[in-house]
Design goal:
Elements lengths: L3 E7 L6 H14 L4 E7 L6 H11 L3 E5 L6 H11 L4 E5 L10 H5 L7 E6 L6 H18 L10 E5 H5 L11 H7 L4 E6 L13 H21 L10
Parallel strand pairs: 1-2, 1-4, 2-3, 5-7
Antiparallel strand pairs: 4-6, 5-6
Helix pairs in contact: 5-8
């Protein structure tokens, strides 16, 4: 029985998948929890699906979901949440600008928290990407008061029961810590490594990182006002 499942969203990442397989296999050998991997292919139009199927045939700890068409990162993460059966889940981007080895740093804290997110120290991105992300994070913090410096960091660990209760919509992947707070959960951020992209191309531009998140903040405020949260005292 796996204790921890890593969700890997994939969209046209054929040049990265061999390295993804190698690094996740290496992590599984030293993981602090028995680990499985779930690829979510978000309607890739390159050879990503063929490569994913070959990886899964070679390694029993890998599984996949293949979307009929591209639905976006939030949908891929949501599908991962829906299909994970282990008590803990994680999330990492297939560009591997973060290292799966750092999952152990996050797992150290998961007994005391419901979501543990990485915060990218010494980011290896362009000036424009760094500044747009910094501005977007500042705007988001003002709306959510979640205290997180880097919610866009693609390395997180969440208790699965909390993840499955998140009412996801497009763009909400940036608000995962805030959505855990709506469930009265506890969150914390932990510094992790960050690396330059080695292959493939980034899927987000300035609009996605700055204007889009600003619009999503209003969606979050509506969600916060309408969110239903309850605890069962007893059952008969």
């Amino acid at each position: 029985m796996y204790e921890f499942t890593i969700i890997v969203p994939v969209y046209n990442e054929e040049d990265n998948l061999a390295r993804v397989e190698k690094e996740l296999l290496a992590y599984a050998k030293i993981a602090s929890k028995k680990t499985a991997v779930l690829f979510v292919n978000d309607g890739s139009t390159d050879s990503s699906q063929e490569l994913i199927e070959a990886i899964c045939q070679r390694n029993e700890l890998f599984q996949f979901i293949n979307f009929k068409e591209n639905r976006g990162l939030s949908a891929a993460i949501k599908a991962g949440f829906d299909h994970v059966e282990s008590p803990l889940l994680g999330y990492i981007d297939s560009d591997l600008q973060t290292s799966p080895m750092d999952f152990n740093k996050l797992l150290e804290h998961i007994d005391s928290y419901h979501l543990v997110t990485g915060v990218r120290a010494d980011r290896k991105d362009s000036f424009i990407k760094n500044m747009s992300s910094k501005i977007a994070n500042g705007i988001r913090r003002a709306f959510t008061s979640d205290g997180m410096d880097d919610t866009g960091c693609p390395l997180k660990v969440i208790r699965t029961d909390y993840a499955k209760r998140i009412p996801m919509f497009k763009g909400l992947h940036r608000f995962l810590p805030a959505m855990i707070l709506l469930q009265n959960g506890k969150i914390v951020q932990v510094p992790i490594q960050h690396f330059p992209r080695m292959a493939g191309t980034a899927k987000f531009g300035v609009w996605n990182r700055l204007i889009g998140p600003l619009m999503d903040c209003f969606a979050y405020l509506w969600m916060k006002k309408k969110y239903i949260n309850y605890e069962i005292k007893s059952k008969g």
